[in-house]
Design goal:
The complex is a heterodimer of chains A (500) and B (339).
Chain A (H helix, E strand, L loop, with lengths): L5 E10 L2 E11 L3 E6 L6 H8 L7 E6 L2 E2 L5 H7 L1 E4 L11 H6 L5 E2 L2 E2 L1 H14 L15 H14 L4 E5 L7 H16 L3 E5 L3 H7 L2 E6 L2 E7 L5 H9 L22 E10 L3 E9 L3 E5 L6 H8 L7 E6 L2 E3 L4 H6 L2 E4 L3 H5 L6 H13 L7 H14 L16 H13 L5 E5 L7 H16 L3 E5 L3 H7 L2 E6 L2 E7 L5 H9 L3
Parallel strand pairs in A: 3-10, 3-11, 6-9, 9-10, 15-20, 15-21, 18-19, 19-20
Antiparallel strand pairs in A: 1-2, 1-4, 4-5, 7-8, 11-12, 13-14, 13-16, 16-17, 21-22
Helix pairs in contact in A: 4-5, 5-6, 8-17, 12-13, 12-14
Chain B lengths: L17 H17 L6 E4 L2 E4 H8 L1 H15 L7 H18 L4 H24 L5 H20 L4 E2 L3 H8 L1 E2 L2 E2 H18 L3 H10 L1 H6 L4 H27 L1 E2 L8 H11 L11 H20 L8 H15 L1 H16 L1
The chains are: A alpha/beta (500), B mainly alpha (339).
Amino acid sequence: MADALLALREIRKEFPGVVALDKVDFNLHAGEVHAVMGENGAGKSTLIKVITGVYPRDAGSMELDGKSLHPRSTLEAEAAGISTVYQEVNLVGTLSVAENILLGRQPRKFGIIRWDETRRLAEKALARLGLELDLSRQLDSCSMAIQQMVAIARALDINARVLILDEPTSSLDEQETAALFKVMRQLRDEGLAILFVTHFLDQVHEISDRITVLRNGALVGEYKTVELTRMQLIGKMLGREPEALQDKSTGSKWAAETRDEILRGEGIGRKGSVHPLDLSVRRGEVVGLGGLLGSGRTETARLLFGIDAPDSGRVQIDGQAKSLNHPRKAIANGLAFCSEDRKGEGIIPNLSLRENLILAMQASRGPVRLLPSAEQEQLCAHYIDALNIKTPNAATPICNLSGGNQQKVLLARWLAMQPRLIILDEPARGIDVGAKAEIEKLVRSLREKGMAVVFISSELEEVVHTCDRVAVMRDRRKVGELSGEEITEQRIMDLMAHHE
Amino acid sequence: MNDPMAKPKEWFQGGSLVWPLLGLVALLAYDFLFVDGFFRLEVRDGHLYGTLVDILNQGSKTMLLALGMTLVIATGGVDLSVGSLMAISGALVAVLVTQTEMSLAMIVPIALAATALLGAFNGVLVSVAGIQPIVATLILMVGGRGIAMLITGGQIVTFEHAGMVYIGNGHFLGLPFTVTLVLVMLLVTSLLMRKTACGLFVEAVGDNETASRFSGVSTRSVKLAVYGFSGICAGLAGLIAASNIKAADSSRVGEMMELDAIFAVVVGGTALTGGRFNLLGSIIGALLIQTLTTTMITQGVPPAIAPVPKAIVIVAVCLLQSEKFRAEIGGRFGRRASA
């Protein structure tokens, strides 16, 4: 193949305490759709941000068409011919389609916008995408797909040679996605270089010509799409070679049938979030939700905990039908939920460890009966010791603790409630190896004590080690369930990749 | 840190008290040096008189508003309607004491219940309807004066009711009764916040609403309660305002006081973004603003331009509170020293 249009060599980007990109090479050719794949934290978005000038790179070189490139802002990158359409469409919803396409660079005469010329240019930009829209329509009133197209039209208008699409399909339905792909193919054929990021595996094979896989900030490799099966792709993303995988002992399993069912969901689902699925969890059982990020694992957890109300199906707790439409109700029924988004949905950053720890318990006691200070002290002392939380004292603001210790405090928040079922969504994400092992051990000991656990993790090894049963999800559907000896990394990956 | 389990004296250390106190002390030092008789106190008929006493008395309304406003701001909101709620409670009381035979023990609770309900209405708009607090409370800020006008029939209703006159003009233990009122409210609010879990819930909701909801905190009830409480504080301030002039002047009373209250809270170290709050800081902030106002009156600054120095002092204290600004200044001086 000819020289790459955009060539990155040994790119390195460090954040305090984390190497986000380490010696990553990336080649983007004119006239190709190039997918960048990787799990959360693999470095995809950092790579894009380095290319678009959001972050300066710490080391390495970047060349566009043979010329060295050092964009210090997205504007500079755009001027050089690199345009980006972000996942969240960054347009102005209250303005018209035409205004959005030409926002900030409307043709002017004596400082006055020339509207006829604006309309003509907007029409031209859309025509390139094969679109004919009402230019004066307010953008908010258009569908997400149209908004996405408008964003692309806007991006292309600036003589772009490289187009970066960051998860453009995450809010599109199938037809809208097909329309977008049609446009992408057409642009590719015109010679545009397109960098495409998505979590949907089906789409990668449908649209991309080549795939670059990242894992933990390092380059795994660059592959021709036709030469990489979906199975191999998953293996590369997760760092497992499918052929080399061996069945690992999962430790002693309890006889699943002998235990009471704590939670039973039949056909629970929510439009736009997760397709109806069945799920049951018994006492002393760890049920894993496997699947890649975006496959609907977290969405399922949110349905169970009443954060999003299901619009189909029934939930039974101890065999009794319940409507869990608010976390309070889920908590009152003995459920607990540790979110994957520790910062956004877990910690109360400026409050102390103690206040964070007692929050759920205090919330269930109500505002008047403050937990006596002696009991608060005792709870904190107990969990700081039991979970080995490293902190100067219980009065330290939780934001001053490390990620792993924050996670332990959040676990303690729920364990103090003595829940009957706890949902752990990526409990080991972003914490160090030591804390990870401790949390895995904790989950097993909870199971021994008879607690039911719903365990969500992207790390197959963790899932295989920890779970008694695994429900595997793909593209917001439950695609299969494994139990006991069936649970191997290979089997889970088979299900994750399986074609219908 | 401001942990409810900490010693009582540490209850108030949500934000640093140093900067508002420093501002207040600096202002008093100026008064001590340049304003004749600012610190002169005298006892007449067993009551204490003097400029300092006047500051406490006249600042009582802002202090009361600031108490309620602190909690609202701690949840990440703001209450613009307090000035209008003052007008409503004043109007209600004036009409009830002049046109009915009800005792004050009936009338005051009725007025406060009314403003509490209206405050809770703000809370419903914010928490249930999801309207931005600044817009939600703007509705009553504008509409509230109309309601007060409806109650008084568009008239300024004057009264001579001894009990009502006492609230804003009477003395208790040698000091204006309003001082006692503020102290009692400060004590009650502090106990309510730190001896129950209310303070924890307010701070948790303000600091991370989603995480609080996921932990089972009823974020709606918390917001409803703080706006309702702010309504009660505004109602009390309205009683004092009406009593001061022995009349309900619906169009003027409490005008712009919502802004003074917000200033007091911010100056007192509670962040507008919500989270940790500091009741004592807000009281000091309110005193700072009142001292400033009083100083300007004694110095003969025309009322029309009085807002200018006021704005300067507020900006100064807010800048001092900003860690970024202090670091910047420190950096400048540090560089100069090393150069």
